[in-house]
Amino acid sequence: MKLKTYIVEDNATIRENLIGTLEELAAIEPVGVAETEDDGKAWLTHHSSEWDLAIIDLFLRQGSGLGILAACHERKPHQRVVVLSNYATPDVRMRCAQLGVDAVFDKSNEIDALVDYCISQADSLDADTAHPHS
């Protein structure tokens, strides 16, 4: 089963490369993208049953990924929200944890870890689907 993934990233090159990499290596299905805080919040909250994973950049052309994280605080148990940022400092990681983020990945050196995370999430979705009442 593919992981329905929504990506908030304002750099088109990074976004396209990320989608290509994750589609190839991690069995994700992109369900949408946004470049701004407002677009990301609107889509994720109005399509709350249409995504399994949201990958969010913190520094956006308009607004901040932190606002999107706050908007996703109330989500279904299987839904995961992760941050992919060039600024994955200890302070940023702590703030993200306070907002209920499931993981933080650094764009410069943790893409492999993000791929592994997506694979493990897809596997756990498959397990839930195979055993819905376990």
Q: Strand order of the main beta sheet, please?
A: 2-1-3-4-5
Low-confidence segments, ≥5 residues, pLDDT <50?
none
Q: What is the CATH-assigned architecture? A: 3-Layer(aba) Sandwich
CATH superfamily: Response regulator
Tell me how many strands there are. Answer: 5
Distance between the termini: 18 Å
Q: What is the SS-derived class? A: alpha/beta
- Count of domain modules: 1
CATH class: Alpha Beta
Give the count of helical stretches.
Answer: 5
Q: How big is the Rg?
A: 14 Å
The biggest sheet, with number of strands, parallel, antiparallel or mixed sense and barrel status, is: 5 strands, parallel
| Beta strand % | 15-25%
Order of helices and strands, N to C? EHEHEHEHEH
Mean pLDDT: 93
**CATH topology title:** Rossmann fold
- The general outline is globular
Question: In percent, how helical is the residue content?
Answer: 40-55%
Protein name: Response regulator
Keywords: Phosphoprotein
Pfam families: Response_reg
InterPro entries: CheY-like_superfamily (IPR011006), EvgA-like (IPR051015), Sig_transdc_resp-reg_receiver (IPR001789)
What does this structure look like?
The structure is a single chain. The protein is an alpha/beta fold. It has a single domain, classed as Rossmann fold (3-Layer(aba) Sandwich), CATH 3.40.50.2300. Helices cover 46% and strands 20% of the residues. The chain contains five helices and five strands, in the order βαβαβαβαβα. Strands 2-1-3-4-5 form a five-stranded parallel beta sheet, sandwiched between helices. Strand 1, helix 1 and strand 2 form a beta-alpha-beta unit. Helix 1 packs across helix 5 and helix 2 runs parallel beside helix 3. The longest helix has 20 residues. The protein is globular.
